[in-house]
């Protein structure tokens, strides 16, 4: 009988192939713009009645406050809590194992008629930094992303280039984009294409950008 | 493109929404007792007014919640938006 081959599966960012390209882009456009891949995190989708004791019970488990206002997020000890809807939150953790994170949150929510589902593989993260970051996103998104209307602590589910994304505002010109892995390459291609505008010398004589693929 | 004021997310682009037909269509209290014609009226027949019309809309690219909006069918202006009425609508959030 043939010996059974075993291999350890390691998590890999869906945009791993773009890592070098984004590094070259960020190096050429610094400090106006930097694009990088976000880390892999455990994520659960929490559904629970906001009026009952569910949110308080979940806060005990995740160790931080859940956002109370629409389209806002709060920081957790090792992650984030995003308000996706009236009775829906997205909870992430860079420290927890996805299965444990789902089990712990679900146990707390189920006691109040809610539930939590592991969605770690549903979305992948991108990080945009620099003075041009907000303007770059407006090339494919209709939301008003100026700091006054989209300040630190805001988040929004919307469309970027017809792909459903969650935009998350960190402090200053630091934005996070959560997108489904199957749409991630499309979103990055659009962002990279739009970023050509921010080259110090965008004239054709200056030659192709270091990140452009032939 | 016009903005639609989602009761939860605030004003968003029309592209993010999907249409759900006439609002406040009550489910028959005793469906088995209806004649075929009465059942067909419930399933297929809808008002088509010229002017304000109460409709269901879903913010499908945002919070994914259903709500009721009153739209003027002549101008496509949204006159008011509100949460989905508890009674009568076929869709649930």
TrEMBL record, chain A:
<dbReference type="InterPro" id="IPR007375">
    <property type="entry name" value="SoxG"/>
</dbReference>
<protein>
    <submittedName>
        <fullName>Sarcosine oxidase gamma subunit</fullName>
        <ecNumber>1.5.3.1</ecNumber>
    </submittedName>
</protein>
<dbReference type="InterPro" id="IPR027266">
    <property type="entry name" value="TrmE/GcvT-like"/>
</dbReference>
<keyword id="KW-0560">Oxidoreductase</keyword>
<dbReference type="GO" id="GO:0008115">
    <property type="term" value="F:sarcosine oxidase activity"/>
</dbReference>
<dbReference type="Pfam" id="PF04268">
    <property type="entry name" value="SoxG"/>
</dbReference>
From TrEMBL, chain B:
<dbReference type="Pfam" id="PF04267">
    <property type="entry name" value="SoxD"/>
</dbReference>
<dbReference type="InterPro" id="IPR006279">
    <property type="entry name" value="SoxD"/>
</dbReference>
<dbReference type="InterPro" id="IPR038561">
    <property type="entry name" value="SoxD_sf"/>
</dbReference>
<dbReference type="GO" id="GO:0046653">
    <property type="term" value="P:tetrahydrofolate metabolic process"/>
</dbReference>
<protein>
    <submittedName>
        <fullName>Sarcosine oxidase delta subunit</fullName>
        <ecNumber>1.5.3.1</ecNumber>
    </submittedName>
</protein>
<keyword id="KW-0560">Oxidoreductase</keyword>
<dbReference type="GO" id="GO:0008115">
    <property type="term" value="F:sarcosine oxidase activity"/>
</dbReference>
